[in-house]
Design brief:
Layout lengths: L1 H39 L7 H31 L9 H44 L1
Length: 132
């Protein structure tokens, strides 16, 4: 049984190394592109026209960002089996996995928040524009 468990752990390590390529790509995109683009949406313009342009740019970015989020989540899902293993040999991989999970979750949450905030701001500006 101990031998079988050790073989399973080695198989997981080999699987992790394959999936880590995807993690690294997603993580790199989040750090080098995604976070910068999200910061650009913090300060929204004061006119409805400029806000609609910003919303259009965000939607284009959102399509790409959502695809990276989806790919990262699929890769993490492949590694769900790690939760069953608690040996010291696997611990460093679990730490890496948790780091990727935290980064992806934080970015996806920020993306959702910005999507909602821009949508609500546009609706508010459209309402005020109609009231005038």
């Amino acid at each position: 049984m101990l031998s079988n468990k050790r073989i399973q752990e080695l198989e997981l390590v080999m699987e992790f190394e394959k999936v880590e390529e995807c993690f690294k790509e997603v993580s790199s995109w989040i750090e080098n592109v995604g976070r910068k683009r999200l910061k650009e949406t913090i300060n929204l313009d004061d006119s409805l026209e400029m806000l609609l342009q910003a919303q259009k740019r965000f939607r284009e970015f959102d399509l790409v960002a959502s695809e990276y989020c989806r790919r990262g989540q699929e890769a993490l899902k492949k590694m769900d089996r790690w939760e069953d293993f608690s040996s010291v040999d696997v611990q460093s991989y679990r730490v890496k996995l948790q780091s990727y999970r935290d980064q992806l979750e934080e970015f996806c949450n920020q993306l959702d928040e910005n999507r909602h905030r821009i949508c609500e701001t546009v609706r508010l500006y459209e309402f005020f524009d109609k009231v005038r």
